[in-house]
Amino acid sequence: MKVLLGWFGHETNTFSRRKTDFELLTSQDSWEGEEILDTFRGTPSYLGGMIKKADENGIGLIPTFAVENAGPTVTDKCLDYVCDILVKYAKKHLGEYQGICIGLHGAGCSETCDDIEAYTLKKLRDVVGWDMPITITLDLHGNVSQKMCDYADGLFGIKENPHIDYATSGYEAMDALIKAMKGEIKLKTEVVPMPMLVPVTVTKDYEDISNYILQYKKEHGLLDLAFFPGFPYSDTPTTCASVFVTADGSQKDHAQKIAKYIWDRRHKVVNIDSFNSKEAVDEGIKYLKENDTGIFLINEEADNPGAGTPGDGTDLIRAFFKANIKGSAFAYMYDPEVVTKAMKAGVGAKIEIELGGKIEDSNFHGEPIHLEDVLVRSISNGNFVATTPLMKGIPGSFGYTVGLQYKNVQFVVASVQNQTYDDRAFFVGNIDFKQMRLIGLKSSQHFKAFYNQYVDKIIPANPPGLSTRNLKSFEYNRVIRPIYPLDEDVTFDPCNG
Ligand SMILES: [Zn+2]
């Protein structure tokens, strides 16, 4: 038996004024054919979990294409280009495989398509028909649609945030697929959409709810049961939180019960309050005065490239420069122009730069910062191997990267957009973050999987930005209203209707 294997994920921020073409989609990396197995076997990824289960069961794999990124709306041309690659493999090997297992995201949008996942699945259905089982994995920041449930037989979602369980969902998706291929089960997924938008960062109560659902899933013998907060930065009619259940046959009542359970606790799951950058830095200064040791970390949640923002927002780093604290460092800013200028000048030179604020509307991510006498401390090719538990051992690159210093603040500037998962940006920028006292980075949640063990205090900063948790700052046009917390009086009873 053989399985067609692939990964095509995009988390689309439709509030960005830019577009994602194939070059931007693959800017971090992409893989095709056999190299997918070499790269991902044994890694904590969707594909790592899928490959592990297939290996255990002696199932052959036909690897196709693998890419995931977050960013602005995908161009139709780019969407079709990727689908054409997947379809090329599906057609070439038709007759050799008996099932399809593919990693998707759940919040992908193109210029004319609100649901990249359903679109991709339909392209594959057009090749293989309706009898072949298909299972998919989804990110909990996915906005799950009925169409995804129609085109795929089984949906499997990650539960942890930071996402340390990609491999678990990949493993479960492959396990269920193999059983369906052998005719042992008849897969069915049902979704219950909820009139609720949730910022990407989780609360403590959210973690308790997740544990409750996991226990419920085990007790009822369900193949999967997941609460998806969804992705509030894509403005589409299917953008909302949801609960889905995947089982051997119809089990929708379980999803309805869990949706009711969460709805009754919605005030605990959704938190849209936070510090602005100055308030966050002031908290850091207070901490340093009261404590002689320890690291204080501020994450700029509002400019998290992992949610499709530019990564060149200037608000938090501007507050760092103003505070000018000895032992403060920031990693990293995306700004290829500054990288080029620093590389031309060379290590040891002092340069004048316009830092960041070049990509999106300044109402969201601020104006460029004019700096003189910036010391070039280091130059790197930006290549690294990840240390975060989310993707430990997987190679990546920030592109050419420079370590700079302005007065007391050391900072890293790179030429590939990505959120900060671990210490690798500091590493390639030649900064030892463990010797710093106040550090800043751009991420919402995932960095915690690495940094929790090294820093003493973490607080988020939410200035204006394309991934701020203040959802009321966005102009929603297509989300179905009323919806909590944008609207006051929202009623929802999933068990009756
Ligand atoms: Zn996610």
What this model shows, in words?
This protein is of the alpha/beta class and 497 residues long. The chain folds into 2 domains: 2-269, Rossmann fold (3-Layer(aba) Sandwich); 277-468, no CATH class. Helix content is 30%, strand content 24%. It contains 16 helices and 19 strands. Helix 6 links the parallel strand 5 and strand 6. The mean pLDDT is 96. It binds zinc ion. Zinc ion is lined by residues 139-141, 163.
Characteristics:
2 domains, Rossmann fold, 497 residues, 24% strand
Overall radius of gyration: 23 Å
- Spatial gap, N to C terminus: 42 Å
Biggest pleated sheet: 8 strands, mixed
Quaternary structure state of the chains depicted: single chain
Kindly state the number of beta strands. Answer: 19
The CATH superfamily label of the largest domain reads: Response regulator
Bound small molecules, deduplicated: zinc ion
CATH class of the largest domain: Alpha Beta
Proportion of beta-strand residues: 15-25%
Number of helices: 16
Give, in spatial order, the strands making up the sheet with the most strands: 12-13-16-17-11-18-10-19
CATH architecture of the largest domain: 3-Layer(aba) Sandwich
Structural class by secondary-structure content: alpha/beta
User: What is the total number of structural domains?
Assistant: 2
Which stretches of 5+ consecutive residues score pLDDT under 50? none
Which outline best applies?
Answer: globular
Q: Give the proportion of residues in helices.
A: 25-40%
State mean pLDDT (0 to 100 scale).
96
CATH-defined fold name of the largest domain: Rossmann fold
